[in-house]
Structures are given as structure tokens and as C-alpha cells.
Design brief:
The structure is a single chain. The chain has 470 residues and is mostly helical. The protein has three domains: 126 residues, Potassium Channel Kv1.1, Chain A (2-Layer Sandwich), CATH 3.30.710; 146 residues, Four Helix Bundle (Hemerythrin (Met), subunit A); 84 residues, Orthogonal Bundle (Helix Hairpins). It is 63% helix and 6% strand. The chain has a five-stranded mixed beta sheet. InterPro entries: BTB/POZ_dom, Ion_trans_dom, K_chnl_volt-dep_Kv, K_chnl_volt-dep_Kv5/Kv9, KCNF1-like_BTB_POZ, SKP1/BTB/POZ_sf, T1-type_BTB, VG_K_chnl. Keywords: Cell membrane, Ion channel, Ion transport, Membrane, Potassium, Potassium channel, Potassium transport, Transmembrane, Transmembrane helix, Transport, Voltage-gated channel. It is found in: Cell membrane. One of its GO terms (molecular function) is voltage-gated potassium channel activity.
Amino acid sequence: MILTGEQSGLCSEGEIAVNIGGVRVVLLGDVLNRYPESRLAELLNCSTQNYDVISSLCDDFDPGRKEFYFDRDPDAFKCIVHVYYFDEIHIERGICPICFLQEMEFWKIDQNVLDECCKIYLSEKEDELKEIGNKVKVILEDLDVDRCGTRTQRCQRSLWKLMEKPGSSLPARIVAIASFLTILVSAVVMCVGTIPELQVADAEGKLVEPPTLETIETACMLWFTVEFLLRLASSPNRLHFALSIMNVVDFMAIIPFYMVLSLTYLGTTTTMELVNVQQAVQALRIMRIARIFKLARHSSGLQTLTYALKRSLKELGLLLMYMGVGIFVFSALAYTMEQSHPETLFRSIPQSFWWAIITMTTVGYGDIYPKTTLGKCNAAVSFLCGVIAIALPIHPIINNFVVFYNKQKVLETAAKHQVELMELKSGSEARSCTHLPVQSPHTRLWPCQLRISAGDTTQCSQFPGGPPML
């Protein structure tokens, strides 16, 4: 029975009345004793004369009305009280899941009673909160350059911001734009160098890239090399830097240039066969296409697309499975149906795989095609099945991309807003505590942020009003 407002009455024997933020609730003792270790069960079973125990369990107590008062969230309590009746708890919409965990801890209810859907929801929100904490930590690190102990550390941090944080300053933005343009110029030079009309003949009469393009490529590679070395030298964690996928791509885009130079030099000064050297050089030049992947480091959209594809591995796997089954079935049918034609183009089932691939993906080069009536019917069915198989997983993949992109925008905004709140809170504390030594606000925020990044978000006093609502 729940009574709100001024409605009240004396509790019967075996009942307990609690007032949660102005909402009066009368609960049966037999129901509360289902969880004897909970706070309400302890209140029910303790003596009303033992004020010390009662004061440790509730905020206030009215002996005349035998009513216990709690300054807690009544909406959250409505969810928690369900455990006594249904042996499970559902988190209602609009309640912060992290704050709800604090409520469960206060009422001494184990988290295992949460329903599975709420556990998944809670896990997602905890991950989001940790991500916000990491973003806040990065922001505070950017603001803490001047606090570094030595001059070398300050220079290293400033150089790292210059090379890795385009939004930190105007020079950093200029460096990022210059790097972006250099990547584009390098890609254009690689493509233009393959146009026969622009190539020149070398001493042996073979067409090679003109010297002008080679000079531009050398300048681009020098920029990539200097940029990579500066980022490596200023990195706070060089091991993590070396193992990063994007940094591996950067290295793979640089190393072929120097390997070509080394092989060319060795080919002219040793007994190495010139033909083998030229073949190796040609193979290494193909690796220059890795430079285009450097654009991902400067494009948040490409990074979001990569993360969305990672989250869509299940859908992509289903797509490949559908296509694999269809390719095998329709290629086998096509081979069987076309054997009766004297000029058949389907010589074997493995050769028919190519026809099935280009047909189901609606490419249709026309180099291999059926000539019998049954083969054409099989081709029509394979075409329709391919369109359906490709269309089915596309929507979940697009939805994952949109959800992840919007989520990242929300988390970045939440992190910036949280930093502003923390600065305001620290500023007010500094004004109220004038007897303390003057410190940078980020200095006082730093221990809190370390706890956030480590996952300790429920006890963080630097979050005004608790963790941010997600």
C-alpha cells in the first residue's frame, strides 16, 4: 500500500512505514523478510528503542507514527521495492543507471537481482561513462602542459599536442592541414606517374616517372618521415605508439621509399642482378598505396566508419555466409545445366564461381554467361537471390554507423560539459577556501579523473551531483 502527501496512519503489527522523499510507503514485514540482509528488513527487525541503530539505518525517525524517513529518490525506490514482490528489478526510463546502482547499494540489494536486459543496459552505460572519463582525462592532460615537472617534459608534451591534437592550437591545425595535403599530393603523384604520355625514357629505353614527380615524391616522403619521427619522439608511451594500427600504416607507407633507394644502390654497386632489383623495386612501389590510409588519422568520419564496421562483424559474417552458399549452389547448377551446350563457357565448377560472384553482386562483366534456357533461368534466380542477400544486412550496418556516430558526438559533448562543471566547482572551492595554497584547478581535478579512467565512477566527488547522466 502506498500513501502520498499528507495521508498517513499508524502501522499495524508486522508492518513498516517509510517516507522516501515525501512519498509514504507501508510495507508488510513478511515481504521484507524475503531479503533479511536488506536495509528495510534490518529496520523491521530492530527495536524501536535502539535509536543508535535506527539513526544508522535511516535519516530520521518519528516514534509516534513509527515512520522512517529517507532523503532518497522515490522513483528509484519504486523500482527497488519490486524485488520484495517479484524477486527482480527493472530500471525505469529516465533514471541514471549509475545512480541507480548507488541506490541499490544503499538499500543493500544485490545487483544479481537485476533483470538481464537491465544488466546489459547497465553495462553499456558503464562503458559510456568510462569513455567519458577517458575523454575528460585527455582534455585535462591537454590543459596540464604547463604543470609538467621539467622543461624537457613540457617541450615533449607541447610537441605531442602540436603533432596529434589539431584542435589544441592554430599551429597544430596548420600542421594537420599540411599533413593532409601532403597525403593527397603524394597519392596524386603516384597516379600521375603511371600515365604513359607523361613518362620519360631512361638509359635503357624504359618508361619511368619524370624527375619532377620523383622530386615531389621525395619531398612528401621527407615530410612523412619527419612527422613520424617527431610523433614517435614526443609520444608519452612509445610502445603503445609503435603497436597502434594507424602508426603501423604510417610506417608501412614510409619504408618502401627507403627500401627502393637501398635496393637501387645495392643493385649498382654489387653483383646483384639488375633485373631482380627492378622487380623488387616495382613490388615495393605498389606498397605506396598504403599512404592513402593515412587519411584515416585526420578524418573522424573514416575512423567512425571503421568502428562501425567492427561493431557490424556479425552482419558482415551473415552477408558472407549468404553469398558463399549462393555462389556454391548457383555455380554448381550452372555448370550442370550448361554441359549440354557444345559451346559452353562453364568448364568446371571452380571456374563457375567467378560467374556466380559477378552475377549475384549484379556486376555482370559478360565474359562468361549461360547459353541454355535452364542456365538463363538459373542466372535470373541467382541475380534475385544476390540482391536480397546483399540488401538484408545493409540496414543494420548503416544503423550501427549512425548510432555510433551520434553516440560519439554525445560523449564528446558530455565530456566537455563535465570538464566545465568540474572547473566551476573547483573555482568555487578555491574562493571559499582562501587559506589553502593557490593551485591550478586542473591539479585538484586530476586525482578524481584518475579514478574515473580506472572505472571508479560511483564514488567520484568531483562530479557535481554524481556521475553525468547518460
